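#struct-help
A.M.: can someone run this one for me? Single chain, 403 residues.
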Amino acid sequence: MIRSYKFLLRPTVQQETALSAMLRDHCSLYNAALQERRDAYQHASRTRIKYGDQSSQLKAIRAFDPDQARWSFSSQQATLRRLDKAFQAFFRRVKNGEKPGHPRFRGVNWFDTVEFPKDGDGCQWDSTVHDPITRVRLQGVGHIRVHRHRPVRGRVKTISVKREGRQWYVVLACDEVPAEPLPATGAAVGIDMGVRRFLTTHTGGHLPNPRHGKRYAEALAEAQRALKAFPKTRPDQRSAKHRRAVETVSRLHRKVRRQRLDHAHKAALELVRAYDKIGHERLNIAGMVRAPKPKPAPEQPGTFLPNGAAAKAGLNKSILDAGWGVFLGILANKAESAGRVVIAVDPRDSSRTCPRPACRHVAAENRDGERFLCVKCGHRDHADRVGALNVAIRAGLVLPDAA
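D.P.: on it. Structure tokens below:
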């Protein structure tokens, strides 16, 4: 198994200064490599520069610039590889006819992660210490204290240093992590994800949607209005009040993200402990939150017909606030570790199909909001429970007769 661990760093003042300098120099390397690719494409008959071409220049760059020479060679290669992946994704989107999204230059405040591809190459995780306070050594920074709140299992493969606001974290990617199977319960469940309720089981149980983003929407809007009142300046020219306003917005976003992540972990753990097999819909969340296409008015060129974009925007915001994708990813990881089985099924018409085996009638008229009423056989139920029951039937977790 592969698992990642995230721990809080507790650097000294000098180490924090060195960490900031490391991020700044890696950001400068990223932007310089991006500029070189752009110039080569525009002025040299659309020549494409690849990762190998830029990686071979690192020795000369380090010999010329002492600021770059103090950092790990492997971490700089990882930064160049990060840019190369961004370009590969760009060309893939162009080939598929999607929105290109050309790689952009990164500001110093938008470059917050440095990766070390191998433990022991420019970095060293102290795996021999069993005390909660351990240390990680980074080239150019030194030995930094780490608050290790849980044991690290498996073999440390890569180490990343990340800045979030004013706090620093180390992220360990480990492989060969042993599984921790839970005792079998003999139970199975189908779940239906929703907005009004976070999830519903096929037995009729509901888990409420905490709506973390909506709860802090007013405070976040007020903080963003206060930030917008300041003129746009470079980060090194901002006043103390401006920096505090930026930190307030960032802190609120981090709080919402952490609460959403905490809720997803607890909900997934509850399901994994209670059921051996879990069925859910294979959701295309990116497609679900896509804005509707404009409808040109045929009789009035230059104008458009109503397409429900305002109502769809509210629904999209609620879907993203629920964090379905984060939850399903965490559920899959916890299930793998616990020896559980997660089955994803086709979601089409799951809440519009009558669950009775003698009927199975599919119609949009069967569902009216949260009310399900089959127009053919008259079966009544909650629409979310019907969706969860059909998920369980399609996953083979319950027999149709259970409806």
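A.M.: thanks! Residues 3-175 form one domain.
D.P.: also worth noting: The chain has a mean pLDDT of 91.
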